[in-house]
């Protein structure tokens, strides 16, 4: 049992397929994923959508972070291509500021008229070369603000305390606690 009396169960354990993410915003995709899981299970559902937003690229890769350089191949191949495309796009950019963004949506039913929505940003910049071997995706290139370590160099415990997902989850937990009748 998790805090607030909620237990998170991965949708795969319940036989729920991955939801489509056809939308242009993180919020729309998270709503679609939560609605899909709730509809398939008849249970409340929590879903997120997240990605990397880079100032010099007008917010890209943004909602398309996982498939910035295409959908082909396994995750490690896609990550390598995504990072190569990111670095190429930033080759001459003087501003390398970026943030990871996460939005969480908690729905009681597929038609919940007032889903709980929480979001957060983890600010930093993009390094010219990778640092570290932990994490995934853009983590070796993401330098959190105020840190000398990349997101791939910090411990999993630290990342789970300070990341965009951790921050959004803290906001969501506070809202749920405040509205205990949810």
SSE blueprint:
Elements (H helix, E strand, L loop, with lengths): L25 H16 L3 E10 L20 H15 L7 E11 L8 E11 L15 E3 L11 H7 L1 H15 L4
Antiparallel strand pairs: 1-2, 2-3, 3-4
Helix pairs in contact: 3-4
Q: Tell me about the largest β-sheet.
A: 4 strands, antiparallel
Given the helix and strand composition, which structural class is it? alpha+beta
Cα-atom radius of gyration: 17 Å
CATH domain topology: Maf protein
Q: Any idea how many domains?
A: 1
The number of helical segments is: 4
Work out the strand percent: 15-25%
Helix fraction, binned, reads 25-40%
**Secondary-structure arrangement, i.e. CATH architecture:** Alpha-Beta Complex
CATH class reads Alpha Beta
Which H/E pattern describes the elements? HEHEEEHH
What sort of overall outline do the alpha carbons produce when their principal axes are compared? globular
Q: What's the end-to-end separation, in Å?
A: 17 Å
Beta strands, count = 4
Q: Which spans have pLDDT < 50 for at least 5 consecutive residues? A: none
Mean pLDDT: 92
- Spatial ordering of strands, largest sheet: 1-2-3-4
Defining key terms:
19% strand; alpha+beta; Maf protein
Outline of this structure?
This protein is an alpha+beta fold and 182 residues long. It has helices spanning 26-41, 75-89, 156-162, 164-178; strands spanning 45-54, 97-107, 116-126, 142-144. A four-stranded antiparallel beta sheet has the order 1-2-3-4.
